[in-house]
Amino acid sequence: MGYELNGTTPDEKIKELTEKLEQGVSEIFTSGRYAEYLSAMSKFHSYSFGNVMLILMQNPAASCVAGFHAWKKNFGRTVKAGEHGIKILAPCPYRRFVEQDQIDANGQPVLDATGKPVRERTLVQLMRFRIVTVFDISQTEGKELPSIGVRELTGDITNYTELADAITSASPVPILYEVPPGEAKGCFNSVTGEIQIRPEMSQRQTVKTMLHEISHAMLHRRTGNDVPAKDRHTREVEAESVAYVVCQHFGIDTSDYSFGYVAGWSKGKKLDELKASLDTIRSCAANLIDSIEQRCPSLCTQRNQTVQQER
């Protein structure tokens, strides 16, 4: 069930919800869960572009990789019997003495009395590579990795069909119920101008995902003007925040999913991305709420009755 709001105007109520979102995300940062999550993630190596390509070529579904011993020592997980590892290139720096021209403070070669460059023996660091084997988390078993609480939503929604139809009608682009790329629950394809929603999810997850992808379509479509595209962190924070506000307005609590999702995309404890986008979030959420209620007035009536009963 959604929060009981004290505001008297739609703008005041939306402001309350965005403040609830900011508070919920802040609690994730200060509770220690976010620090635990970052601590675990910091133990994974940062892979070069070339190694990322090698990983994806050998295991397109790979998400988190580490070496055999790293999984056991750092994460309490062991590689399953019979698993074949992923081969990548590990840098192996080494030092050796080489003969080279002596250089002065201005970057010019030092010359001897005859005008020839002075040579010196210098210790330099060089790089070579060796093949190492890593394993994806799906190839391991054992202790669960820490998470920041993004749990898939479950449960049904009263008058789900009416709400889903109204949301679909309010969408600026067509919504298709088909499997999106990878493990995503939904996807807005800016090339085809369509939204894909993974079939067979719970009603709560489906509605939340629809609103998330519609927000992308409303806020993040390139229109050919000179306005620079927002970075991915900002786009995801905005889309999930709008989905959270609209869901809460209709009595659908997505806190378990949205707070962790937004925290995962925010870069710091000051929530710079979220705060900088609040006006955008509020405006888009208000437009979506108005559009949905115009298409299905009974949703507004039912919500008002529910609020009165709760009071």
Word description of this protein:
The protein is α+β, with helices and mostly antiparallel strands and 311 residues long. The protein folds into two domains: 10-31 and 149-310, no CATH class; 49-142, no CATH class. The chain is 46% helix and 17% strand. The protein is built from eleven helices and eight strands. The chain has a three-stranded antiparallel sheet. The chain has a three-stranded mixed sheet with strand order 6-8-7, covered by helices on one side. Helix 6 packs across helix 7 (232-249). It is elongated. 28% of the residues are buried. Mean pLDDT is 82; it is low at 305-311.
Reading side by side through the largest sheet, how are the strands ordered? 1-4-3
Nearest-angstrom radius of gyration?
Answer: 27 Å
Helix content: 40-55%
Quaternary structure annotation: single chain
Number of helices: 11
Biggest beta-sheet profile? 3 strands, antiparallel
Order of helices and strands: HHHEHEEEEHEEEHHHHHH
Query: What is the rounded distance between the termini?
Result: 13 Å
How many structural units, i.e. domains?
A: 2
Uncertain spans, ≥5 residues at pLDDT below 50? 305-311
Mean pLDDT: 82
What is the total tally of β strands?
A: 8
- Structural class by sheet pairing and helices: alpha+beta
